[in-house]
């Protein structure tokens, strides 16, 4: 019976064959312990000299790291193992012998590991992070599908930008200027006017020369957009979505969280509703915490977000930022012209902003005024303006950064570990 490591609990007491790689090994006299991996998980294979042929025991003792094989044996329960099962090996068939595998069990520097990212992904820690990423994606589709959203794929090549062109990658689109998308939002607003509730999941690009642990040049965004939904309703959807994803990871990634030694007690508390603090109150809170230089009208940096988050055990919404530091499409607060109906969701434990969202302007005259204030050419944005001309409705949306969310839930320090092949300021390889 050929199976995978993930499936072996179904075959306790039975003999199975698994295609696997050797992650590590140790041997002592007449017994060898093989740490096996097959992509679905990690498991120990125990090779006892008296239970296998002389050739197979020689293979087990001398096999090199990352050698591939078909390995056959009986599945038994092993309560000492986090996985809970191991294989009592009967036969080994080597497929390919790996020689001088560069990532040995010793410590390696980060740059060395990043240069070998194509191999580093095989490690137990990186495997755990990617499995958590996969669960967040799976839960995202489940949440939006079961709540009546339609997935829409916005273009990656665009002729205009959502938030200005200063931090965009420019390219030639035949004889026109084009940009790599920094957000699919504008296109999703058009889709929301056709389908009501939509979401996208795809890559976005920021030509931002930042080296912080929270920034990537290429990252993935989940962007829902909703017709007939106001700002407060959008906040409720955001906290329900984040709560759903966190609980899904806790339920389905217990082994991976254990590998990463993640403190799950903090994650278990992540359930809606989330606390909310206005930008005005956030400024006062920061001043009390020692940020005496911060002035009303300034945007928050990483230290500010971390300081605000320290006052809460759950993610916290910072609402109603000043109009002048936010994007042109955000709807002004009807009670205050100087702030807009927006919110950033700040994750606990210093992981920073994971969601930015707002209610969008739905008034044609006001949007035309914003175009003039932001020097937006009517030609490039004419289609976006027409959304306010033909059946405009109140609508809201938000974007969640996948990699920051993965970093927060898995507890890793830097977002470079949260995407298979990170694109950083100094890295386009591999």
UniProtKB/TrEMBL annotation:
Identify the residues that the record assigns to the Aminoacyl-transfer RNA synthetases class-II family profile domain, covering every copy.
Answer: 130-430
Query: What's the domain of life for this entry?
Result: Bacteria
Extract the SUPFAM superfamilies matched here.
Answer: Class II aaRS and biotin synthetases, Nucleic acid-binding proteins
The record's Pfam families line, in alphabetical order, gives: tRNA-synt_2, tRNA_anti-codon
Q: What is its EC number?
A: 6.1.1.22
CDD domains on file: AsnRS_cyto_like_N, AsxRS_core
Where is it found, in Gene Ontology cellular component terms?
Answer: cytoplasm
Tagged with keyword Magnesium: no
Q: Where in the cell is it found?
A: Cytoplasm
Tell me the GO molecular function terms: asparagine-tRNA ligase activity; ATP binding; catalytic activity, acting on a protein; nucleic acid binding; transferase activity
**Alphabetized UniProt keyword annotations:** Aminoacyl-tRNA synthetase, ATP-binding, Cytoplasm, Ligase, Nucleotide-binding, Protein biosynthesis
Task: Please name the Gene3D superfamilies in this protein's record.
Answer: Bira Bifunctional Protein, Domain 2, Nucleic acid-binding proteins
User: Catalysed reaction per UniProt?
Assistant: tRNA(Asn) + L-asparagine + ATP = L-asparaginyl-tRNA(Asn) + AMP + diphosphate + H(+)
- Please name the GO terms of the biological process aspect recorded for this protein, alphabetically: asparaginyl-tRNA aminoacylation
Give the record's family classification: Belongs to the class-II aminoacyl-tRNA synthetase family.
Describe the protein's quaternary organization and the partners it interacts with.
Answer: Homodimer.
Under the heading HAMAP family, the entry gives:
Asn_tRNA_synth (MF_00534)
The protein depicted here goes by the name Asparagine--tRNA ligase
- Organism expressing this protein natively: Lentibacillus populi
Classification from the root reads: Bacteria, Bacillati, Bacillota, Bacilli, Bacillales
Gene name of the record: asnS
